[in-house]
Fold this sequence. Notes:
By secondary structure, this protein is of the alpha+beta class. Helices cover 19% and strands 45% of the residues. The protein has helices at 85-97, 150-158, 165-176, and strands spanning 5-15, 20-28, 33-40, 44-51, 54-62, 67-71, 74-75, 100-111, 120-130, 144-149. Strands 4, 5, 6, 7, 8, 9 and 10 form a seven-stranded mixed beta sheet that branches. A three-stranded antiparallel beta sheet has the order 1-2-3, with no helix packed on it. The chain starts with a strand and ends with a helix.
Amino acid sequence: MPPDIKTNATRIVYENRWMRVREDSITRKDGSQGIYGVVEKSDFAVIVPLDQGMIHLVEQYRYPVQGRYWELPQGSWEQAPDTDPLDLARAELREETGLTARSMRHVGHLFECYGYSTQGYNIYLAEGLETGAADREREEQDMISRAFPIAEVNAMILEGVIKDAATAAALGLLRLKGLL
């Protein structure tokens, strides 16, 4: 089956270390012409560190929305987009929280904002946690890591304290799969 939308031409309008923005000239099924702006970003990993009814979260300043927010540990390696997602998840967990996990279970893959971006994310449940030292990047120097009871994390989502869509979706997927 041919795709519903045909790409006629593509031009890169912006590019940096973290993303590339392109504009595609397209033709729809009915023959009408249009454009799509597409943000190309590497997939990332979201980790749910769970230990004895506690979920470890990180809080950091998110510049685009000008605020500090709690979220699950997460990240990508733009310089190595073909990294095994499990290796990425293990490294991001240790980097942001100092935790290592004896068990990392892949829970699923979701897309971040597929209306305009190629980026997706793999969700991992990390259990059997051991504490160590965090090894944060310069961009994460203001990060705080703390464990919360599951009920408190749920309340934080309901009250709008946690606003990160990937965090809410990851926890929802774990709950639907009976893992939380």
